Amino acid sequence: MNSELIVVSNRLPYYQNKKKVWKRAAGGLINAVEPIVIESKGTWIGWDGNDSKQLTQYQVNQLSCETRQLPDSYKINCVPLTKEEASIYYDHFCNETLWALFHYFFEKCSINEESWKMYKIINERFAEIISQTAAKGASVWIHDYHLMLVPRYLKLLRPELDMHFFLHTPFPHIDIYSILPWGREILHSLLQCSSVGFHHESYLSNFRGAAKRLNVETNDCQTFTNPISIDFELFDTASRSHIVQTKQSAFKESMGNIQILLSIDRIDYSKGIKERLLAIESLLKSRPDLIEKFVYYQLTIPSRENVGSYQELKKEVDELVGRINGSYATEKWAPIHYHYGTKSFEQLTAIYLASDICLVTPLRDGMNLVCKEFIAAHSDEKGVLILSQFAGAISEINDCLAANPYSINNLKLAIETALEMPEPERTDRMKNMRSSISKHNIHHWWKICRKYFKLYPRIGILK
User: Fold this and answer.
1) So which residues are the signal peptide here (predicted)?
2) Which residues contact 342 (CB under 8 A, 6 or more apart)?
């Protein structure tokens, strides 16, 4: 049976490892959107990360998955991509061109005609599979910069479909966006949708400004802002469970039962990982009395390992961690604990709960959900959040410590303030942040987004 709600993203929420066992992928988009697909009994279309030439379809509860119990109420369709196609479309155009440009790292942006051609080919392939899957008049919800040409191709194939798009990155100012030779073509495609959503008012303003400057008709497309959120109740409930409480106690003990500073990022130059490490180094140099008083735990999730700039960044981070630990470690203590990999949901929640301070300090970020997950996991109403003024989430979270990650000294002072913040102030700030995020949760986000869908309110009756 064809689905009334189709969610489309570059990657699926599940992938097969080398042993052909299905695992749940990491990522804020997956955590945010999957509850909606489950509730709607819809279909998720995307790539599973494998080298493939043939479309495959699965009922999610039939997958052999080692990570957690799988929902039984939605289907996934795997778009086939060969290894060569993925390299050109994903590694080169999506990451070296669009990601770099949309995050204002235009000096890292590569403009290449061949990768643009492959981007068009893959977007058209996605559109063809959506066309084959969608019920008559279905709502199709397309996500993120990887698939910005899908609306154009899908409009030609199935003009009656109710198309919507949500961008999870910043949309750059026209002076940056105009570097892209195909910018007008992309805007024209996006404006074929019934709605286009953004996380922040500045991204929407930039989008409208680009359409106006490049003289692209907006048609009847409605554009709006709606900051994405998380399933607050999921993290809050998990943090109170026996298994998470046990794991968080064990984690605190393994860190020496001292204050824990936490960061969780993909390995990416936009995340400000090097700048944070330099701030920690600067703090230890200026405040030797803090040696053995705290530990910094950096969980770094592998990402885009085939892209040269990411390989170089990992090397630089590894060397920086080694330098800091080599300079300041004692017989019983090392300042930096660096983990490169992923964690289960329960372990991740336990790490959030165990950590006293969370540093979310990207140089530029569309939203960032780590900060919201940290808040939701702190059912003990403790914990301090240091948040970059360049993260989309800064407009929502008033009781964080705002920091400028481009200034090592500013970042150092924010860390120092957090370490020495009195307990009553920590509790007051965390209570306020939890109140805000619990109200503006993923269900609230979906409630606003779905108002633009023709099938509203039939699909996804969430809280």
Assistant:
1) none
2) 26, 301, 302
